[in-house]
Write the structure tokens for this entry.
Amino acid sequence: MTDASAPQETAKAEADALRHAYEVSRFVQERSREIRGVRASADIVKCFAEAARTLVGSGGTQFYVRDAAGTAMVLHKTTGDTTIRRLGASPWRPPKETLDWVAKERRTTTVPGENDREWHTLVPLVVAGEVSGILVLDVPQSAGELAQQTIEALTFLAEEAAAALIASEERARVDDELGRIDRERSFLANILDSITNGILAADLDGRILQINRNAAAMLDIPSLDVIGQDFEPLLTGDVRVELRAIFDETLQAGFAMERLVTTRLGGTEFPIAVGSSLLRDDALQAFGCILVFRDMTASREMDRLRKLDQMKSDFVANVSHELRTPLTSIKAYCEALAGMPRTPKEMEFLQVIEEEGDRLIELIEDLLDVSRIQSGTLRLNLEPANPRDLVAEVLAMPRLHAGKHRIASNIAADVPEMLFDWNRMKEVLINLVSNAVKYSPEGGDISVSLAVAEGNLRIAVEDHGIGIADADQASLFQQFFRVDGSLAAKVSGTGLGLAIAKGISEAHGGTVTVKSAPGKGSVFTVILPIRRDVPQGEARPEKSPFG
């Protein structure tokens, strides 16, 4: 009976083995597809660990990967202390030597745990001949009880998991790199869009590589979504012909000089200047062309305004010259009439005519000075003199002492004789002292001081008048500028005095500064370089060292 049943039992065992092998094979195939189907490394480890536990009846898993240096195995972040253990004890950590041995031998190994019921199977994950990780399984069997088929299945799944992990890490790296590229592209696009000029880059075939919003607006291209398109069909009329010619010239010569091109936007002519050059890679090989578009509308308007300003200056200069001649004649006749017998009332009228004539002549001279300063034709008669004598002459003028002011001088002992234009600097000093008097309506002290510092003469005129707000100080030396305010509005003047003072000072190679505060008065300081001789051929300094 026993002999008769033996073949049947053998056949049944073989059938069971085949069925088990089939089930294991199908299980491995399904889990392999599942492992390959997930993307996140944590999900890959989870799928592999669950498949391994099912194969060996494992209760817990740990997953080790190489550290950043590639010299040691460390616990993967997806497992850590969250390892599920069947026995409920704290996770067993394989010794470093065991991990290193498994990585070196590249084969699945089962080792005893801390007691008789605990065994641990270590499965290396090998990809392209390199161990990328080790899975540690808690198993109930000893090494001898773990079937070869199970070991092979574990090894196959381990290789699948290792390949999936490497692919996942590579995808993550690529995603990070693509994200970085997108951020850089966005950053570059923002920079290009913030540039006031238009920018269009195209490859050697004319396909657009990059375009900013200003270029699209200037060329009447409705959308920025034109990357990869030929730029020529996007343009119309003369602009297409002009840009094609510029592009071809750039490809042949390496660049094209800036030229004016006129586009039409909404029926209105729109002038733009176009320049271009080749784009080259690190090997200096040309791969494209960049065209830069500059809006010339503002430039044309500025040119028009400059021409108008020049016409105004020429007109003022011409009229001033024409007015000076008859005014001189009027003044001469007044003086002649004053020398004849006249009644007191007639003499009073003649004096008014003469004084007002003098005012007009001063105004005309101011306008002519401004015109000379603007045109750069202001000439200086540099002669040696002592600035203290200049101050004494100006402060002796009766018209500066007509009010309630006390004008005093403070002159340092070391002020030397130097070269300057006496009449021009007298004009500067009169303007500054007159302003100090006019803008101190309540009277008070005014001081004129001379000092030497760092090779420069410093002429300071200080008053204790109404002062000047910070917002107005930057415009003080502009022609025709008048300080706002009710007190300042009562002061007569043309707004030319300080502009002339600045121009004359700069013609001497110096400058004028102001320090003031509302209600605390002002200090105007002329700074001139002390010069004792004039180099041969020099009529005046061409440029102030003070800017």
In short: Residues 301-375 form a domain with the Helix Hairpins fold (CATH 1.10.287.130). The first helix runs from residue 2 to 37. DSSP finds 13 helices and 17 strands in the chain.
